[in-house]
Amino acid sequence: MYKCDNCENNKLSSVSLSSLELQIFQLLQSNDVEKICKYPYLLYSYTNKIYKFLKISTLEKLQSYIIPSIIRSIIGKKLTNAYGIWSIDNEPDGNKELFGYSLYSSASFFNHSCNPNLINIEKGAKTIFKLLKNIKKNEELCINYSDSINDDLEIRQKDLKEWFFDCLCERCVEEMNLKNAKK
């Protein structure tokens, strides 16, 4: 994260970003172009507004990093990789309130499965990843990207279009094969 090596009078004299964290962040997928094509209002509401705000409010030393392509890439990575921070599901109707988003660079490398072996649990200010079952050596760790895990194949596939991929997890392939066999 950002570190202040010498802060006097609330002025930032030196800023460094963890090299590993920055490298991991740069590897994250960004569907910025696809998202903007699908939702054109994002170009104005996110990119233009955020870019203008950052240009006005960022310290002089960091101004060279505030360019449209970097801001668009960061927003695209957020839209693709962020985790929602939700209220605890104590409501009788099952509704939860979205408080915001957080981007955990390392956790963003978990792929999707409609039969996940890993879930994320919020405990206060922490996010914990918990195994749902025993896993084999070299088995991929997968989470579920959507809230449609209990829905049928068509609904799950439609929901996952927000991440711009067709799910080909074991469960979906099995259900597709069963559906095709019935035809």
Automatic annotation (TrEMBL):
The source's superkingdom equals: Eukaryota
Q: PROSITE patterns annotated for this entry? A: SET
- Domain named SET: residues: 60-146
Q: Which GO terms describe its cellular component?
A: nucleus
Q: Name one Pfam family in it.
A: SET
- Please name the InterPro entries in this protein's record: H3K4_H4K5_MeTrfase (IPR050869), SET_dom (IPR001214), SET_dom_sf (IPR046341)
Designated name of the protein: SET domain-containing protein
What's the source species for this entry?
Answer: Rotaria sordida
